[in-house]
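Lecture notes, unit on protein representations.

Consider one protein chain, 100 amino acids long.
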Amino acid sequence: MQKPKYHILVCCSFRASGAPQGVCHKKGAVGLLPFLENELADRGIDALVSSTGCLKVCEKGPIMVIYPAGWWYGQLDETRLAAVLDVLEKNEPATSLLIE
């Protein structure tokens, strides 16, 4: 496998015990994964998606981080996620949606 252009981390609030808890999980982060995977494939964006444990920005969940750029996004839903992908296609951040 060749290294992808982007690695996208989606907080799914998993804890050491493996049990999902926290804000991102409760706000539907796991449900965003299939949407994200489908959109990436449809748009031809070269990215690997990983669900993660807590990213410690619970008040802004659900959280997503795009590497190698290090762009952090919060309060994600399908609409906001699509807006991020619209500009990611141009290799740019969705600046109005970035977590500061």
